[in-house]
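To the wet lab folks,

You asked to see what we're planning to order before we commit. Fair enough. Below is the target structure as tokens, and below that is the sequence we designed to fit it. If anything looks off to you, flag it before the synthesis order goes out.
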């Protein structure tokens, strides 16, 4: 009897995992499944009508290209900048905390405040334009808002702290004695980075790239506030928003969301496959 009671007693580990599983089912699996089914039940036409409409309408399918044109360069830029800066700040110094705080501050501002600051600094009559004209460096108006460049700058400002924090976490997780051991064998700083740090950072680079890309690909407020949402920065999330809340076509909006998710999944799979081909070891790399 006691053995049966012990067998029926729930595993404490399952009790700890259960809230996360329930949350995942309610707020991810169910909405995804509902949206997936809804995307194949259009108001008119057969079950593929929404997808056929998306890929036959240039105004719609070009949003995928525009979103890639925005998100991929910004992701490469943010990860490319975050890696050397995080590597340089891996050691504790008297200025490390201050520099890290300054670099992370933009993540607390939010997209609206960043857009407001950009309009003040980078608008046609912004401080940058007035400063360059004052020094007679450039007399024409400088327009870095309400266009493609404005969205790129906004995404770079808001996304860099996220990449930097992730890279700093991975860099500081690598045991420094590995580099010291290599130094005793004659390896210079560049060789230490290339032969020790970079291979161990490969999983972190891949994860950071994937998360930063997904974040940038979902751009919405920046495309509206500092972009040109009816033209060069009409991203795919705007197409989904218009279908859902302007045309009230939730089936079409679900189809756009599915295409958006599939496009992100393709990039994530490619990056993870590249990581696997370049690095074989623990997923956490140098993190112990």
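Sequence we intend to order:
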């Amino acid at each position: 009897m006691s053995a049966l009671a012990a067998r029926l007693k729930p595993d404490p580990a399952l009790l700890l995992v259960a809230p996360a599983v329930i949350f995942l089912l309610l707020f991810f699996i169910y909405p995804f499944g509902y949206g997936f089914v809804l995307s194949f039940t259009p108001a008119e036409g057969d079950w593929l009508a929404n997808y056929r409409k998306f890929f036959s309408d240039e105004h719609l399918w070009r949003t995928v290209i525009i979103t890639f044109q925005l998100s991929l360069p910004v992701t490469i830029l943010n990860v490319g900048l975050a890696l050397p800066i995080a590597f340089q700040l891996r050691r504790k110094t008297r200025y490390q905390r201050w520099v890290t705080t300054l670099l992370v501050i933009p993540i607390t501002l939010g997209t609206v405040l960043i857009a407001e600051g950009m309009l003040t600094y980078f608008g046609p009559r912004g401080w940058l334009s007035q400063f360059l004209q004052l020094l007679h460096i450039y007399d024409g108006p400088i327009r870095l808002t309400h266009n493609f460049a404005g969205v790129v700058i906004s995404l770079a400002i808001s996304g860099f702290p996220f990449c930097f924090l992730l890279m700093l976490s991975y860099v500081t997780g690598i045991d420094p004695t590995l580099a010291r051991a290599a130094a005793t064998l004659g390896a210079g700083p560049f060789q230490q980075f290339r032969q020790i740090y970079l291979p161990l950072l490969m999983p972190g680079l891949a994860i950071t790239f994937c998360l930063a890309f997904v974040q940038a690909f979902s751009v919405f407020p920046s495309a509206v506030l500092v972009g040109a949402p009816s033209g060069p920065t009409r991203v795919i999330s705007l197409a989904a928003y218009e279908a859902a809340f302007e045309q009230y076509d939730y089936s079409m909006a679900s189809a756009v969301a599915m295409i958006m998710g599939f496009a992100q999944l393709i990039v994530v799979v490619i990056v993870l496959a590249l990581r696997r081909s370049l690095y074989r070891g623990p997923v956490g790399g140098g993190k112990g």
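Structural context that might help your review: The longest helix spans residues 58-88. Residues 241 and 247 are 9 Å apart (CA to CA).

Thanks,
Computational group
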